[in-house]
Design brief:
The chain folds into three domains: 261 residues, no CATH class; 242 residues, no CATH class; 102 residues, Sandwich (Immunoglobulin-like). 19% of the residues lie in helices and 34% in strands. A hairpin with an 8-residue loop joins strand 6 and strand 7. Helix 5 runs antiparallel to helix 6, helix 6 packs across helix 8 and helix 8 packs antiparallel against helix 9. With 636 residues, the protein is α+β, with helices and mostly antiparallel strands.
Length: 636
Amino acid sequence: MKKLLFVFLSIVINFSNLPAQSINGNFELDSLVVNYTLVARDMVQTGNDGNQYTTTYDDSAGTHEVWIGWPVAGDNSLFDFALPYWSVGDTMATYDVPLSSAAALSAFGLGLNTDFSDGAYTINAGSVYPTTDTEDCVTEQVFLPIQDAGTWTNGGFDPKVLPGNKVRWGWGIITSGVFASFEAPNMVTDVLGTDYGTGTPMESWGYIQANYTDDTYSAVDGLNIGWEAHDSESADLGVVSDGDPFFVQAEADLGLLNGMLGRSKVPVDSVTIPAIANLASTMGITINVPDVNPYMVGGEGVETPDGTPGYGALDTNIFYVFDPIGNLLGGGDGQMFSGDEALMFTGYYATWNTLITMNGIAEGVYEAMVSGAGADPTNINFGAIVDSVIEYTTYYWEFDDASVTALKAAPVNTQGTSFRDAAVAQVTAWATMGLSFEKIGGALLPFIQGAVTNVQAALTAAGTPLLYFDDTPIVVDDSGHDLSMTDFDLAEAQEYGVLWNNIGGRVKAQSYANCFPAKWTQRVNSHWTYMGALTTVDDNSITVDRFELKGNYPNPFNPTTKIRFTNDRSSNVKVTVYALTGEKVATIMNKSVKAGAYDVSWNGRNTNGKVVPTGMYLYDIESEGRRLQGKMLFLK
Protein backbone atom coordinates (compact mmCIF):
# COMPACT_ATOMS: atom_id res chain seq x y z
CA MET A 1 0.00 0.00 0.00
CA LYS A 2 1.12 3.59 -0.45
CA LYS A 3 2.10 4.77 3.00
CA LEU A 4 4.56 7.43 1.92
CA LEU A 5 5.70 10.19 4.17
CA PHE A 6 6.62 12.64 1.48
CA VAL A 7 4.72 14.12 -1.37
CA PHE A 8 6.46 16.48 -3.75
CA LEU A 9 5.21 19.15 -6.03
CA SER A 10 5.81 21.82 -8.56
CA ILE A 11 3.63 24.82 -9.14
CA VAL A 12 3.14 27.99 -11.11
CA ILE A 13 2.08 31.08 -9.19
CA ASN A 14 -0.60 33.04 -11.01
CA PHE A 15 -1.42 36.18 -9.05
CA SER A 16 -4.42 38.34 -9.79
CA ASN A 17 -2.87 41.30 -8.02
CA LEU A 18 0.83 40.49 -8.39
CA PRO A 19 3.17 40.09 -11.34
CA ALA A 20 2.89 36.59 -12.85
CA GLN A 21 5.67 34.40 -11.58
CA SER A 22 6.92 30.85 -12.04
CA ILE A 23 8.87 28.77 -9.57
CA ASN A 24 11.40 26.92 -11.65
CA GLY A 25 14.53 25.54 -10.10
CA ASN A 26 16.09 23.15 -7.67
CA PHE A 27 15.02 22.90 -4.04
CA GLU A 28 16.53 20.99 -1.12
CA LEU A 29 14.51 19.82 1.90
CA ASP A 30 15.96 21.29 5.09
CA SER A 31 13.19 20.87 7.70
CA LEU A 32 10.43 18.35 8.30
CA VAL A 33 7.86 17.90 11.09
CA VAL A 34 5.44 14.98 10.78
CA ASN A 35 2.55 13.70 12.87
CA TYR A 36 1.04 10.26 12.34
CA THR A 37 -2.34 9.40 13.84
CA LEU A 38 -3.57 5.81 13.67
CA VAL A 39 -7.20 4.95 14.39
CA ALA A 40 -8.61 1.43 14.72
CA ARG A 41 -10.78 0.75 11.69
CA ASP A 42 -13.62 -1.71 11.20
CA MET A 43 -12.72 -4.91 9.39
CA VAL A 44 -16.18 -4.90 7.77
CA GLN A 45 -16.18 -2.11 5.20
CA THR A 46 -18.23 -0.92 2.27
CA GLY A 47 -16.74 -1.32 -1.20
CA ASN A 48 -17.22 1.14 -4.02
CA ASP A 49 -20.11 -1.06 -5.23
CA GLY A 50 -22.07 -0.39 -2.03
CA ASN A 51 -21.71 -3.91 -0.62
CA GLN A 52 -19.90 -4.93 2.55
CA TYR A 53 -16.66 -6.91 2.55
CA THR A 54 -13.81 -8.09 4.74
CA THR A 55 -10.47 -8.23 2.98
CA THR A 56 -8.44 -11.42 2.91
CA TYR A 57 -5.67 -9.63 4.81
CA ASP A 58 -8.05 -8.56 7.60
CA ASP A 59 -9.70 -11.97 7.73
CA SER A 60 -6.37 -13.81 7.83
CA ALA A 61 -4.32 -11.60 10.12
CA GLY A 62 -6.36 -8.68 11.48
CA THR A 63 -7.34 -8.47 15.15
CA HIS A 64 -8.57 -5.83 17.58
CA GLU A 65 -7.30 -8.00 20.43
CA VAL A 66 -3.83 -8.68 21.79
CA TRP A 67 -3.05 -12.36 21.49
CA ILE A 68 -0.65 -13.57 24.16
CA GLY A 69 0.92 -16.91 25.05
CA TRP A 70 2.41 -18.58 28.09
CA PRO A 71 5.20 -19.33 28.85
CA VAL A 72 6.13 -17.89 25.45
CA ALA A 73 4.29 -16.94 22.30
CA GLY A 74 4.76 -19.26 19.36
CA ASP A 75 5.12 -22.97 18.75
CA ASN A 76 6.20 -23.59 22.36
CA SER A 77 3.16 -21.87 23.83
CA LEU A 78 1.10 -23.96 26.25
CA PHE A 79 -1.75 -21.48 26.62
CA ASP A 80 -2.91 -18.82 24.15
CA PHE A 81 -5.63 -16.32 24.87
CA ALA A 82 -6.78 -12.92 23.60
CA LEU A 83 -7.19 -9.73 25.59
CA PRO A 84 -9.79 -7.22 24.42
CA TYR A 85 -7.73 -4.19 23.44
CA TRP A 86 -9.05 -1.88 20.70
CA SER A 87 -12.53 -0.77 19.75
CA VAL A 88 -13.28 0.63 16.30
CA GLY A 89 -12.54 4.36 16.35
CA ASP A 90 -9.94 4.18 19.13
CA THR A 91 -6.77 6.19 18.58
CA MET A 92 -4.16 3.44 18.63
CA ALA A 93 -1.04 5.56 18.33
CA THR A 94 0.28 9.01 17.55
CA TYR A 95 3.84 9.54 16.43
CA ASP A 96 5.69 12.81 16.10
CA VAL A 97 8.77 12.99 13.88
CA PRO A 98 10.48 16.36 14.46
CA LEU A 99 13.33 16.62 11.96
CA SER A 100 13.49 20.40 12.12
CA SER A 101 16.99 20.93 10.75
CA ALA A 102 19.20 19.75 7.93
CA ALA A 103 21.46 18.12 10.51
CA ALA A 104 18.55 16.08 11.88
CA LEU A 105 17.58 14.99 8.37
CA SER A 106 21.16 14.00 7.64
CA ALA A 107 21.36 11.98 10.85
CA PHE A 108 18.57 9.75 9.52
CA GLY A 109 20.15 9.49 6.07
CA LEU A 110 17.34 11.55 4.60
CA GLY A 111 18.02 13.80 1.62
CA LEU A 112 15.49 15.13 -0.84
CA ASN A 113 16.30 17.15 -3.92
CA THR A 114 13.58 18.18 -6.36
CA ASP A 115 13.39 20.17 -9.59
CA PHE A 116 10.21 22.19 -9.96
CA SER A 117 8.92 23.25 -13.35
CA ASP A 118 5.58 24.46 -14.67
CA GLY A 119 2.98 21.83 -13.75
CA ALA A 120 5.51 19.07 -13.10
CA TYR A 121 8.17 17.93 -10.67
CA THR A 122 11.18 15.63 -10.80
CA ILE A 123 12.65 14.00 -7.70
CA ASN A 124 16.31 13.57 -8.46
CA ALA A 125 18.70 10.67 -8.00
CA GLY A 126 20.15 10.43 -4.52
CA SER A 127 16.88 11.38 -2.80
CA VAL A 128 15.82 9.22 0.14
CA TYR A 129 12.42 9.18 1.85
CA PRO A 130 11.03 7.44 4.94
CA THR A 131 7.99 5.21 4.81
CA THR A 132 6.60 2.28 6.80
CA ASP A 133 6.70 -1.40 5.99
CA THR A 134 4.67 -4.12 7.72
CA GLU A 135 6.10 -7.63 7.53
CA ASP A 136 4.78 -10.54 9.59
CA CYS A 137 2.66 -8.13 11.66
CA VAL A 138 5.57 -5.88 12.62
CA THR A 139 5.54 -2.30 11.33
CA GLU A 140 8.89 -0.58 10.97
CA GLN A 141 10.08 2.68 9.50
CA VAL A 142 12.36 2.28 6.51
CA PHE A 143 14.34 4.75 4.40
CA LEU A 144 14.33 4.08 0.67
CA PRO A 145 15.95 5.73 -2.35
CA ILE A 146 13.45 7.34 -4.67
CA GLN A 147 13.09 8.97 -8.05
CA ASP A 148 9.79 10.12 -9.45
CA ALA A 149 8.18 12.47 -11.93
CA GLY A 150 4.63 13.73 -11.64
CA THR A 151 2.16 16.50 -12.36
CA TRP A 152 0.32 18.86 -10.04
CA THR A 153 -2.48 21.40 -9.85
CA ASN A 154 -3.19 24.47 -7.75
CA GLY A 155 -6.87 24.21 -8.60
CA GLY A 156 -6.71 27.39 -10.65
CA PHE A 157 -7.23 29.47 -7.51
CA ASP A 158 -5.59 32.77 -6.63
CA PRO A 159 -3.07 32.61 -3.80
CA LYS A 160 -3.52 34.03 -0.32
CA VAL A 161 -1.09 36.88 0.29
CA LEU A 162 0.62 36.70 3.71
CA PRO A 163 2.80 39.22 5.55
CA GLY A 164 6.53 39.12 4.91
CA ASN A 165 6.44 38.69 1.12
CA LYS A 166 4.82 35.25 1.36
CA VAL A 167 1.99 33.74 -0.66
CA ARG A 168 0.14 30.49 -0.10
CA TRP A 169 -2.25 28.48 -2.22
CA GLY A 170 -3.72 24.99 -2.37
CA TRP A 171 -1.93 22.24 -4.16
CA GLY A 172 -2.82 18.75 -5.36
CA ILE A 173 -1.08 15.84 -7.05
CA ILE A 174 -2.58 14.81 -10.38
CA THR A 175 -0.26 11.98 -11.51
CA SER A 176 2.58 10.16 -9.81
CA GLY A 177 4.21 6.79 -10.04
CA VAL A 178 4.44 6.35 -6.27
CA PHE A 179 2.69 9.11 -4.34
CA ALA A 180 -0.83 9.69 -3.13
CA SER A 181 -3.42 11.93 -4.76
CA PHE A 182 -4.49 15.20 -3.11
CA GLU A 183 -6.86 18.05 -3.79
CA ALA A 184 -6.09 21.76 -3.82
CA PRO A 185 -8.35 23.93 -1.63
CA ASN A 186 -8.90 27.62 -2.27
CA MET A 187 -6.76 29.24 0.41
CA VAL A 188 -8.57 32.57 0.01
CA THR A 189 -12.17 31.41 0.56
CA ASP A 190 -12.15 27.83 1.89
CA VAL A 191 -12.25 27.20 5.64
CA LEU A 192 -10.19 24.45 7.29
CA GLY A 193 -12.51 21.97 9.01
CA THR A 194 -15.48 23.09 6.94
CA ASP A 195 -14.41 22.98 3.30
CA TYR A 196 -11.27 20.89 3.64
CA GLY A 197 -9.56 18.78 6.30
CA THR A 198 -10.68 15.99 8.64
CA GLY A 199 -14.39 15.21 8.43
CA THR A 200 -14.98 17.22 5.24
CA PRO A 201 -15.47 16.10 1.63
CA MET A 202 -11.84 17.16 0.98
CA GLU A 203 -10.03 15.24 3.71
CA SER A 204 -6.73 14.89 1.85
CA TRP A 205 -5.32 18.24 0.79
CA GLY A 206 -2.10 20.15 0.38
CA TYR A 207 -0.66 23.63 0.32
CA ILE A 208 2.49 25.38 -0.79
CA GLN A 209 3.85 28.69 0.38
CA ALA A 210 6.44 30.64 -1.59
CA ASN A 211 8.72 32.92 0.41
CA TYR A 212 10.21 35.79 -1.61
CA THR A 213 13.24 37.91 -0.92
CA ASP A 214 11.39 41.23 -1.32
CA ASP A 215 8.08 42.79 -2.26
CA THR A 216 8.84 42.61 -5.98
CA TYR A 217 8.17 38.84 -5.79
CA SER A 218 10.95 38.30 -8.30
CA ALA A 219 13.25 35.93 -6.38
CA VAL A 220 12.17 32.88 -4.37
CA ASP A 221 14.07 32.27 -1.16
CA GLY A 222 12.38 29.01 -0.20
CA LEU A 223 9.14 27.05 0.07
CA ASN A 224 6.91 25.82 2.89
CA ILE A 225 5.01 22.69 1.89
CA GLY A 226 2.38 20.91 3.97
CA TRP A 227 -0.33 18.33 3.54
CA GLU A 228 -2.83 16.15 5.34
CA ALA A 229 -3.39 12.65 3.97
CA HIS A 230 -5.98 10.09 5.08
CA ASP A 231 -6.11 6.46 4.01
CA SER A 232 -8.82 6.35 1.36
CA GLU A 233 -9.54 5.20 -2.17
CA SER A 234 -9.66 8.81 -3.39
CA ALA A 235 -6.13 9.44 -2.08
CA ASP A 236 -4.98 6.02 -3.28
CA LEU A 237 -3.51 5.65 0.19
CA GLY A 238 -3.82 2.64 2.50
CA VAL A 239 -5.84 0.64 -0.02
CA VAL A 240 -5.34 -2.92 -1.27
CA SER A 241 -2.57 -2.86 -3.86
CA ASP A 242 -0.22 -5.23 -5.62
CA GLY A 243 2.55 -6.42 -3.32
CA ASP A 244 0.46 -6.39 -0.14
CA PRO A 245 0.12 -9.57 1.94
CA PHE A 246 -2.87 -11.67 0.77
CA PHE A 247 -3.31 -9.44 -2.30
CA VAL A 248 -6.58 -10.02 -4.18
CA GLN A 249 -7.18 -7.98 -7.33
CA ALA A 250 -10.96 -7.96 -6.86
CA GLU A 251 -10.49 -6.32 -3.45
CA ALA A 252 -8.22 -3.70 -4.98
CA ASP A 253 -10.88 -2.99 -7.62
CA LEU A 254 -13.40 -2.42 -4.82
CA GLY A 255 -11.16 0.24 -3.23
CA LEU A 256 -11.01 -1.57 0.11
CA LEU A 257 -8.67 -0.39 2.87
CA ASN A 258 -6.08 -2.71 4.41
CA GLY A 259 -3.78 -0.45 6.42
CA MET A 260 -2.25 -2.23 9.40
CA LEU A 261 -0.32 -1.38 12.52
CA GLY A 262 1.86 -4.39 13.26
CA ARG A 263 3.27 -4.77 16.76
CA SER A 264 5.18 -7.54 18.45
CA LYS A 265 5.44 -5.28 21.49
CA VAL A 266 2.63 -3.32 23.09
CA PRO A 267 2.59 -0.23 25.29
CA VAL A 268 2.86 -1.12 28.96
CA ASP A 269 3.53 0.86 32.10
CA SER A 270 5.56 0.16 35.21
CA VAL A 271 3.92 2.51 37.69
CA THR A 272 0.24 1.55 37.77
CA ILE A 273 0.56 -1.75 39.67
CA PRO A 274 2.50 -0.25 42.60
CA ALA A 275 0.24 2.82 42.66
CA ILE A 276 -2.96 0.78 42.69
CA ALA A 277 -1.50 -1.54 45.33
CA ASN A 278 -0.99 1.51 47.55
CA LEU A 279 -4.56 2.63 46.92
CA ALA A 280 -5.90 -0.87 47.59
CA SER A 281 -4.08 -1.03 50.93
CA THR A 282 -6.12 1.96 52.16
CA MET A 283 -9.25 -0.09 51.44
CA GLY A 284 -8.02 -3.22 53.21
CA ILE A 285 -7.22 -4.99 49.92
CA THR A 286 -3.85 -6.67 49.45
CA ILE A 287 -2.27 -6.62 45.99
CA ASN A 288 1.06 -8.36 45.58
CA VAL A 289 3.56 -6.27 43.60
CA PRO A 290 6.22 -8.13 41.55
CA ASP A 291 9.73 -7.46 42.77
CA VAL A 292 11.09 -6.85 39.26
CA ASN A 293 9.54 -5.00 36.30
CA PRO A 294 5.86 -4.82 37.31
CA TYR A 295 4.83 -4.15 33.71
CA MET A 296 1.14 -4.37 32.88
CA VAL A 297 -0.72 -4.25 29.60
CA GLY A 298 -3.51 -1.72 29.25
CA GLY A 299 -2.31 0.49 32.10
CA GLU A 300 -2.92 4.22 31.92
CA GLY A 301 -0.42 5.37 34.51
CA VAL A 302 -1.16 7.51 37.55
CA GLU A 303 -0.69 11.14 38.44
CA THR A 304 1.98 12.34 40.82
CA PRO A 305 0.87 14.45 43.83
CA ASP A 306 1.38 17.66 41.84
CA GLY A 307 -0.84 16.37 39.03
CA THR A 308 1.97 15.58 36.60
CA PRO A 309 1.29 12.41 34.56
CA GLY A 310 3.57 9.61 35.69
CA TYR A 311 3.02 7.04 33.02
CA GLY A 312 6.34 5.21 33.04
CA ALA A 313 5.32 3.89 29.62
CA LEU A 314 7.44 1.67 27.39
CA ASP A 315 6.96 -1.04 24.78
CA THR A 316 7.65 -4.67 25.57
CA ASN A 317 6.27 -8.09 24.71
CA ILE A 318 6.60 -9.48 28.25
CA PHE A 319 4.10 -8.27 30.85
CA TYR A 320 1.57 -9.17 33.53
CA VAL A 321 -2.15 -9.11 32.84
CA PHE A 322 -3.37 -6.94 35.71
CA ASP A 323 -7.03 -5.89 35.75
CA PRO A 324 -8.33 -4.04 38.83
CA ILE A 325 -11.16 -2.48 36.79
CA GLY A 326 -12.47 -5.54 34.98
CA ASN A 327 -12.23 -4.22 31.44
CA LEU A 328 -9.90 -6.93 30.10
CA LEU A 329 -11.43 -10.26 31.04
CA GLY A 330 -14.47 -9.36 33.08
CA GLY A 331 -16.36 -6.73 31.13
CA GLY A 332 -16.34 -4.52 34.21
CA ASP A 333 -18.28 -1.34 34.86
CA GLY A 334 -15.18 0.87 34.67
CA GLN A 335 -15.01 1.33 38.43
CA MET A 336 -12.06 0.02 40.39
CA PHE A 337 -12.74 -2.65 43.05
CA SER A 338 -16.50 -2.55 42.44
CA GLY A 339 -16.81 -6.33 42.70
CA ASP A 340 -17.41 -7.22 39.04
CA GLU A 341 -13.77 -7.80 38.09
CA ALA A 342 -13.12 -11.25 36.64
CA LEU A 343 -9.67 -11.39 38.23
CA MET A 344 -10.57 -10.09 41.69
CA PHE A 345 -10.34 -13.62 43.10
CA THR A 346 -6.76 -14.04 41.86
CA GLY A 347 -5.43 -10.76 43.21
CA TYR A 348 -6.49 -8.90 40.02
CA TYR A 349 -3.83 -10.76 38.02
CA ALA A 350 -4.19 -13.40 35.34
CA THR A 351 -2.65 -16.39 37.12
CA TRP A 352 -2.27 -20.10 36.64
CA ASN A 353 -5.71 -20.55 38.20
CA THR A 354 -7.15 -18.12 35.64
CA LEU A 355 -5.62 -20.08 32.76
CA ILE A 356 -6.80 -23.48 33.91
CA THR A 357 -10.29 -22.17 34.67
CA MET A 358 -10.57 -20.66 31.20
CA ASN A 359 -9.23 -23.87 29.67
CA GLY A 360 -11.65 -26.00 31.70
CA ILE A 361 -14.61 -23.87 30.66
CA ALA A 362 -13.67 -24.00 26.98
CA GLU A 363 -13.12 -27.76 26.92
CA GLY A 364 -16.14 -28.45 29.08
CA VAL A 365 -18.50 -26.51 26.81
CA TYR A 366 -16.99 -28.07 23.71
CA GLU A 367 -17.25 -31.65 24.98
CA ALA A 368 -20.84 -31.16 26.17
CA MET A 369 -21.92 -29.76 22.83
CA VAL A 370 -20.29 -32.49 20.73
CA SER A 371 -21.81 -35.05 23.11
CA GLY A 372 -25.31 -33.87 22.28
CA ALA A 373 -26.13 -31.16 24.84
CA GLY A 374 -26.81 -28.76 21.98
CA ALA A 375 -28.37 -31.22 19.57
CA ASP A 376 -31.70 -29.39 19.81
CA PRO A 377 -30.94 -25.64 19.58
CA THR A 378 -34.42 -24.89 20.97
CA ASN A 379 -33.89 -27.07 24.04
CA ILE A 380 -30.20 -26.99 25.02
CA ASN A 381 -29.26 -29.16 27.98
CA PHE A 382 -27.61 -26.54 30.19
CA GLY A 383 -27.30 -29.00 33.06
CA ALA A 384 -25.09 -31.25 30.94
CA ILE A 385 -22.99 -28.27 29.90
CA VAL A 386 -22.47 -27.14 33.51
CA ASP A 387 -21.61 -30.66 34.64
CA SER A 388 -19.03 -30.94 31.85
CA VAL A 389 -17.51 -27.55 32.73
CA ILE A 390 -17.26 -28.51 36.43
CA GLU A 391 -15.68 -31.84 35.51
CA TYR A 392 -12.98 -30.31 33.30
CA THR A 393 -12.33 -27.29 35.53
CA THR A 394 -11.91 -29.27 38.72
CA TYR A 395 -9.74 -31.77 36.84
CA TYR A 396 -7.32 -29.01 35.80
CA TRP A 397 -7.49 -27.54 39.30
CA GLU A 398 -6.49 -31.00 40.67
CA PHE A 399 -9.47 -31.31 43.03
CA ASP A 400 -9.70 -34.61 44.83
CA ASP A 401 -12.91 -36.54 44.19
CA ALA A 402 -14.49 -35.74 47.55
CA SER A 403 -13.89 -32.04 47.06
CA VAL A 404 -15.58 -32.12 43.64
CA THR A 405 -18.67 -33.61 45.24
CA ALA A 406 -18.50 -31.09 48.09
CA LEU A 407 -18.16 -28.15 45.67
CA LYS A 408 -21.18 -29.20 43.60
CA ALA A 409 -23.37 -29.55 46.67
CA ALA A 410 -22.13 -26.54 48.64
CA PRO A 411 -24.73 -23.76 49.11
CA VAL A 412 -23.75 -20.46 47.45
CA ASN A 413 -26.59 -18.15 48.54
CA THR A 414 -28.95 -17.55 51.42
CA GLN A 415 -31.57 -19.74 49.76
CA GLY A 416 -29.23 -22.71 50.05
CA THR A 417 -28.91 -23.20 46.27
CA SER A 418 -26.02 -25.52 45.48
CA PHE A 419 -23.11 -24.39 43.37
CA ARG A 420 -24.10 -26.79 40.61
CA ASP A 421 -27.76 -25.67 40.49
CA ALA A 422 -26.83 -21.99 40.74
CA ALA A 423 -24.44 -22.43 37.79
CA VAL A 424 -27.19 -24.09 35.70
CA ALA A 425 -29.63 -21.27 36.52
CA GLN A 426 -27.06 -18.61 35.68
CA VAL A 427 -26.01 -20.16 32.36
CA THR A 428 -29.68 -20.58 31.39
CA ALA A 429 -30.32 -16.91 32.21
CA TRP A 430 -27.35 -15.76 30.17
CA ALA A 431 -28.47 -17.81 27.19
CA THR A 432 -31.99 -16.39 27.50
CA MET A 433 -30.41 -12.91 27.37
CA GLY A 434 -28.96 -13.85 23.99
CA LEU A 435 -25.32 -14.25 25.01
CA SER A 436 -23.21 -16.48 22.77
CA PHE A 437 -21.44 -19.48 24.29
CA GLU A 438 -18.19 -17.54 23.99
CA LYS A 439 -19.67 -14.72 26.09
CA ILE A 440 -21.15 -17.20 28.54
CA GLY A 441 -17.74 -18.84 28.89
CA GLY A 442 -16.18 -15.48 29.73
CA ALA A 443 -18.86 -14.77 32.32
CA LEU A 444 -18.29 -18.16 33.95
CA LEU A 445 -14.68 -17.25 34.79
CA PRO A 446 -15.48 -14.95 37.76
CA PHE A 447 -18.56 -17.02 38.64
CA ILE A 448 -16.52 -20.20 39.13
CA GLN A 449 -13.51 -18.55 40.79
CA GLY A 450 -15.81 -16.61 43.12
CA ALA A 451 -17.80 -19.69 44.05
CA VAL A 452 -14.65 -21.72 44.81
CA THR A 453 -13.34 -18.82 46.93
CA ASN A 454 -16.52 -18.49 48.97
CA VAL A 455 -17.17 -22.23 49.31
CA GLN A 456 -13.58 -22.79 50.41
CA ALA A 457 -13.92 -20.12 53.12
CA ALA A 458 -17.13 -21.66 54.42
CA LEU A 459 -15.86 -25.25 54.36
CA THR A 460 -12.53 -24.30 55.93
CA ALA A 461 -14.42 -22.66 58.80
CA ALA A 462 -16.35 -25.91 59.17
CA GLY A 463 -13.13 -27.92 59.21
CA THR A 464 -13.69 -29.64 55.82
CA PRO A 465 -11.77 -27.58 53.22
CA LEU A 466 -11.65 -28.31 49.50
CA LEU A 467 -8.44 -30.24 48.78
CA TYR A 468 -6.02 -30.92 45.94
CA PHE A 469 -5.05 -34.48 45.05
CA ASP A 470 -2.16 -34.21 47.50
CA ASP A 471 -4.54 -33.34 50.38
CA THR A 472 -3.40 -29.70 50.65
CA PRO A 473 -6.11 -26.99 50.72
CA ILE A 474 -7.26 -25.41 47.45
CA VAL A 475 -5.94 -21.84 47.05
CA VAL A 476 -7.75 -19.55 44.59
CA ASP A 477 -5.61 -16.43 45.02
CA ASP A 478 -2.24 -17.58 43.70
CA SER A 479 -0.98 -14.04 42.93
CA GLY A 480 1.80 -13.93 45.52
CA HIS A 481 4.51 -15.14 43.14
CA ASP A 482 5.27 -15.73 39.47
CA LEU A 483 4.36 -18.91 37.67
CA SER A 484 7.48 -20.85 36.74
CA MET A 485 8.06 -23.88 34.56
CA THR A 486 10.31 -25.22 37.30
CA ASP A 487 7.20 -25.72 39.44
CA PHE A 488 5.89 -28.40 37.08
CA ASP A 489 6.56 -32.11 37.12
CA LEU A 490 7.35 -32.47 33.43
CA ALA A 491 7.63 -36.28 33.67
CA GLU A 492 4.10 -36.40 35.04
CA ALA A 493 2.95 -34.00 32.34
CA GLN A 494 4.37 -36.28 29.67
CA GLU A 495 2.67 -39.34 31.21
CA TYR A 496 -0.78 -37.78 31.62
CA GLY A 497 -0.67 -35.29 28.77
CA VAL A 498 -1.49 -32.35 31.04
CA LEU A 499 0.37 -29.88 33.22
CA TRP A 500 -0.58 -29.97 36.90
CA ASN A 501 0.61 -27.39 39.37
CA ASN A 502 -1.23 -26.61 42.60
CA ILE A 503 1.39 -23.99 43.46
CA GLY A 504 0.05 -21.58 40.82
CA GLY A 505 1.43 -18.09 40.30
CA ARG A 506 1.11 -14.89 38.28
CA VAL A 507 1.33 -15.29 34.52
CA LYS A 508 4.07 -13.26 32.88
CA ALA A 509 2.78 -13.59 29.33
CA GLN A 510 4.39 -12.86 25.98
CA SER A 511 2.51 -11.13 23.17
CA TYR A 512 2.45 -12.40 19.62
CA ALA A 513 3.07 -10.07 16.69
CA ASN A 514 -0.45 -8.71 16.17
CA CYS A 515 -1.84 -7.01 13.07
CA PHE A 516 -4.20 -4.23 14.13
CA PRO A 517 -6.40 -2.87 11.29
CA ALA A 518 -5.61 0.85 11.18
CA LYS A 519 -6.56 3.97 9.27
CA TRP A 520 -3.50 6.18 8.96
CA THR A 521 -3.44 9.96 8.82
CA GLN A 522 -0.29 11.96 8.04
CA ARG A 523 0.10 15.65 8.81
CA VAL A 524 3.29 17.12 7.41
CA ASN A 525 4.98 20.51 7.42
CA SER A 526 8.28 21.03 5.61
CA HIS A 527 10.62 23.75 4.44
CA TRP A 528 12.70 23.73 1.28
CA THR A 529 15.64 25.96 0.36
CA TYR A 530 16.04 27.28 -3.16
CA MET A 531 19.39 25.96 -4.39
CA GLY A 532 19.49 27.42 -7.91
CA ALA A 533 18.22 26.88 -11.42
CA LEU A 534 19.20 24.38 -14.09
CA THR A 535 18.73 25.64 -17.62
CA THR A 536 19.63 24.22 -21.02
CA VAL A 537 21.99 26.47 -22.98
CA ASP A 538 20.76 27.00 -26.54
CA ASP A 539 23.98 28.07 -28.24
CA ASN A 540 25.05 26.44 -31.51
CA SER A 541 28.62 27.63 -31.00
CA ILE A 542 29.07 25.34 -28.01
CA THR A 543 30.41 21.87 -28.81
CA VAL A 544 28.80 19.11 -26.75
CA ASP A 545 30.89 16.15 -27.91
CA ARG A 546 32.85 16.09 -24.66
CA PHE A 547 32.39 16.34 -20.91
CA GLU A 548 33.82 19.80 -20.35
CA LEU A 549 33.70 22.65 -17.84
CA LYS A 550 33.05 26.14 -19.24
CA GLY A 551 33.54 27.92 -15.90
CA ASN A 552 31.14 29.97 -13.79
CA TYR A 553 29.91 33.49 -14.37
CA PRO A 554 29.90 36.00 -12.88
CA ASN A 555 32.98 35.28 -10.83
CA PRO A 556 33.34 36.82 -8.25
CA PHE A 557 29.58 36.82 -7.62
CA ASN A 558 26.77 37.96 -5.32
CA PRO A 559 24.13 36.71 -4.96
CA THR A 560 24.04 34.12 -7.78
CA THR A 561 26.44 32.50 -10.20
CA LYS A 562 25.92 30.04 -13.05
CA ILE A 563 28.19 27.03 -13.53
CA ARG A 564 28.28 26.01 -17.21
CA PHE A 565 29.33 22.58 -18.47
CA THR A 566 28.75 20.32 -21.44
CA ASN A 567 27.86 16.65 -21.27
CA ASP A 568 28.42 14.29 -24.21
CA ARG A 569 25.94 11.56 -23.23
CA SER A 570 22.76 10.84 -21.31
CA SER A 571 23.88 10.30 -17.75
CA ASN A 572 23.34 11.28 -14.14
CA VAL A 573 25.21 14.47 -13.29
CA LYS A 574 25.94 15.59 -9.74
CA VAL A 575 27.20 19.10 -8.91
CA THR A 576 28.52 19.68 -5.39
CA VAL A 577 29.92 22.81 -3.75
CA TYR A 578 32.71 22.49 -1.16
CA ALA A 579 34.52 24.85 1.18
CA LEU A 580 38.31 25.04 0.80
CA THR A 581 38.51 22.88 3.96
CA GLY A 582 36.84 20.05 2.04
CA GLU A 583 33.51 20.36 3.91
CA LYS A 584 30.46 19.86 1.69
CA VAL A 585 28.42 23.06 1.45
CA ALA A 586 25.57 22.04 -0.86
CA THR A 587 24.53 19.64 -3.60
CA ILE A 588 22.95 21.84 -6.24
CA MET A 589 22.26 19.18 -8.85
CA ASN A 590 21.87 15.42 -8.88
CA LYS A 591 19.79 14.28 -11.84
CA SER A 592 19.80 12.52 -15.18
CA VAL A 593 20.31 14.79 -18.21
CA LYS A 594 20.70 14.26 -21.92
CA ALA A 595 23.73 15.32 -23.94
CA GLY A 596 23.91 19.10 -24.15
CA ALA A 597 25.15 22.32 -22.57
CA TYR A 598 23.80 23.34 -19.15
CA ASP A 599 23.87 26.19 -16.65
CA VAL A 600 23.48 25.30 -12.97
CA SER A 601 22.73 28.25 -10.68
CA TRP A 602 23.97 28.57 -7.10
CA ASN A 603 22.72 31.25 -4.75
CA GLY A 604 25.52 31.18 -2.19
CA ARG A 605 23.53 29.19 0.38
CA ASN A 606 24.34 25.95 2.17
CA THR A 607 21.99 23.00 2.67
CA ASN A 608 20.59 24.71 5.80
CA GLY A 609 19.50 27.67 3.68
CA LYS A 610 22.07 29.98 5.26
CA VAL A 611 24.14 32.41 3.21
CA VAL A 612 27.77 31.24 3.25
CA PRO A 613 30.65 33.47 4.40
CA THR A 614 32.67 35.48 1.92
CA GLY A 615 35.43 33.37 0.43
CA MET A 616 36.64 30.94 -2.17
CA TYR A 617 34.60 27.81 -2.87
CA LEU A 618 35.18 24.71 -4.99
CA TYR A 619 32.63 22.99 -7.19
CA ASP A 620 32.76 19.39 -8.40
CA ILE A 621 30.86 18.05 -11.43
CA GLU A 622 30.60 14.25 -11.65
CA SER A 623 29.25 12.15 -14.54
CA GLU A 624 29.68 8.37 -14.65
CA GLY A 625 32.92 8.46 -12.68
CA ARG A 626 34.33 11.45 -14.60
CA ARG A 627 35.02 14.66 -12.67
CA LEU A 628 35.41 18.35 -13.46
CA GLN A 629 36.39 20.90 -10.82
CA GLY A 630 36.49 24.67 -10.59
CA LYS A 631 36.80 27.58 -8.16
CA MET A 632 34.53 30.55 -7.51
CA LEU A 633 34.67 33.57 -5.21
CA PHE A 634 31.64 34.65 -3.21
CA LEU A 635 31.57 38.28 -2.02
CA LYS A 636 29.10 39.82 0.42
